[in-house]
Amino acid sequence: MAGVSLKCGDCGTLLKSVEEAQEHAELTKHTNFTESTEPVLNLICSTCGKPCRSKTESDLHSKRTGHNEFVDKTSETVQPISLEAPKQKDDDTMMAEAGDGSNSCPQEEMVVPEVDQKLLGELEEMGFSKARAHRALHYSGNASIEAAANWIVEHENDSDIDEIPMVPANAKNPEAPKPVLTEEEKKMKLQELKERARKKKEEEEKQKEREREKERIRIGKELLEAKRIEEENERKRIMALRKAEKEEERRAREKIRQKLEEDKAERRRKLGLPPEDPTTAKPSTPVVEEKKSSLPVRPATKAEQMRECLRSLKQNNKDDDAKVKTAFNTLLTYAKNVATNPNEEKFRKIRLSNAAFQERVGKLQGGIEFLELCGFEKIEGGEFLFLPREKVDIQVLHSAGNELNNAIKNPFFGVL
Q: Taking the complete model, does pTM exceed 0.85, yes or no?
């Protein structure tokens, strides 16, 4: 099969003639061309008649305009390609041809096609050049501003986009089958386009506002859920603390009851009385002892010893809640500083003669004892409390912090 096109070996573009190959070479600097049996496509848009030379060009046209129907006229236009460059005619030959009426065809008169002057003016006001606007109105059939603008977008890469079109005086525009609209129709069409654009913009704004409202509602729900979970966790924590306090009070009352029974049995033994018969019915009366500190009950664990220390401190200063709270907060600060920075000696050494320490903790019964339970020792003749680095027990300090937090936050701590 004879060659019907020239193919650029550098970019793969198909060209119809040697002239197109020369133009392509000038624009791209490509020089590798070969003869090809693959024809250049000629896809004609059924809607607007625009020719497309490739599938990519037709896809781009469809994307811009929405026109999806094309007629393939490649087979009608395909011709064997001539590899000979066109010869330039010299001046004598041209003059001879011009003087010889038998060998020349009469020149057709070319005129500028008529277009809608009002639409032309509006396009110029939009920033398009007069030639580009004239060409767009001519090839879009003088239909509307929108059609002309679409035509300009589709053909903005055409080499002759800024040239005023010329047509034979007796020819009709093949792409302008529609009659020119009346002034009233043009006004209505323009108003319709403006109204459509306004409604589209309003709809877009409404859609954005709906999306923003949905986002606000979603964030609000997430915040409410997070707040609910936080409140639920706080409620559970308070309930757990109260339950622990009740259990602690129950154990304390039981210890007091046992101690009373032991003291009672010891008194009976000293008086020479027989042991009390456990089978003897006794009225069940609750034992409520206000002055628990008067009973020398020694807690079994270090945490219980700390708790008893804090309870003693509060009961001995029950008339001054502010002083008790200051003492608890000061002890919590000491424990927290050592637990957070165990290597810092300044947090592990306390001068007992310090006025602030004496006012807040030192002169209150149970304050220094609590620090000693945390691991502090008296050194230098009792002038300092010191916690050696090797004796720092983080678990003991955490227990001390928990007991202090309990005593600070529980309003019923130390009441019984």
A: no
